[in-house]
Amino acid sequence: MKQTALLVLLVEDDMDLAATLSDYLTLENIECDHAFNGRAGLDQALNNQYDLILLDLTLPQIDGLSVSEQLRAQHIQCPILMLTARDAISDRVAGFEAGADDYLIKPFAFEELVVRIRALVRRSKAQSNQVKIADLTIDFDQQLALRNGRRLKLSPTGWTLLEQLARNSPKTLSREQLERAVWGDQVPNSNSLKVHIYKLRRQIQRPHESPLLNTVAGSGYGLRQS
């Protein structure tokens, strides 16, 4: 049985390399979106869900280190594999400190790149059953949510909402997306989601704690640090 294709984001300003690499990855059952500068790459990474990001260091508009730092600041935990011709130890250290998970020096063998991609994705998926957003920790295996050590008391519906919001953090989910995740096509009434979001927010946010569950007017709800 053919495995489900991985989806990676390639942020690379060398158009010839990007095209060749995308074609090769497709043959390896790895689908590839491409951004040709740092600003476009940052925008795509923040608004889509990828298994891994391939990130060049020397990019127009925003360099790779800054892209990585901004993604981590936004709590994007997707693995980042940096691709660069810089081979000094100081450059590697800077990459890891900016949030990279691995570092591959150009020129590289495509076969090695594929091996590293699959290894990073495997490691990420093994760790993906726990998410930390600011001081809120969510363990999906144990269905446990803690904020500053305080356990959240959630109903089954509250837990489903929290899981959907956390797994997609920091993105905003629409009302329709959340209703479908909780009730499918059988939404009880038009106010049901609003009521459960209110109850979830009261559990997540005590008066002295910073807001994490945000309402985005006209769009929906997002779980992220304001």
From TrEMBL:
Pfam families: Response_reg, Trans_reg_C. The modification 4-aspartylphosphate is found at residue 56. The keyword Transcription regulation applies. Keywords: DNA-binding, Phosphoprotein, Transcription, Transcription regulation, Two-component regulatory system. InterPro entries: CheY-like_superfamily, OmpR/PhoB-type_DNA-bd, Sig_transdc_resp-reg_C-effctor, Sig_transdc_resp-reg_receiver, WalR-like, WH-like_DNA-bd_sf. Residues 128-225 form the OmpR/PhoB-type domain. GO terms for biological process: regulation of DNA-templated transcription. Residues 7-121 form the Response regulatory domain. It comes from the Bacteria. GO terms for molecular function: phosphorelay response regulator activity; transcription cis-regulatory region binding. One of its GO terms (cellular component) is protein-DNA complex. Residues 128-225 bind DNA. This is Cell cycle response regulator CtrA. It comes from Cohaesibacter gelatinilyticus.
